[in-house]
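Annex B. Sample input.
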Amino acid sequence: MYDRERKQELLAKWMAVYAPDRKLLLLSEGEIFSLVNALERIRNYGDHQKISDEEVIYILIAITPENEVPVYVGRATSLYNRWKAHLGGIQKGLGLYSQWCSLLFTNSMAARYPLFLIVVPGSQIKLPPISGFPVTVGAVEYQLVSLMADAYPSMTLNHEGRFR
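Annex B, continued. Sample output.
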């Protein structure tokens, strides 16, 4: 149990450095999933933050009654295009996205929790999640996935990069 709590603390500390001004509300609790609305929020966020062509780390966060839980970590050179693919997968609810749907949405596709994206441009990453590790986008992505999978195993949607 101690190890899980320590990893939750490491994740929370890393996100606290980057999250305050980098959170994007993707869906409110109870809001019915809409591909068009979610993509519009992402487009507006990307335009406002001026991150159109820079590689980013993104973390999907579910705000549960107990905690702010990271459920998915990824990286992209186009946040909009990457999330267009994720959201299209959610809309279809097939394959890996069936797990996303059951964890994050009710049968009527209402969000179970408020869902946020934390979006961190690669050029802004100065601190590694684990002290002494590299701060490249790829290294940070895998550090975060590994921490998340150990800290929140029942809520982690990543398949690749787990158990490293």
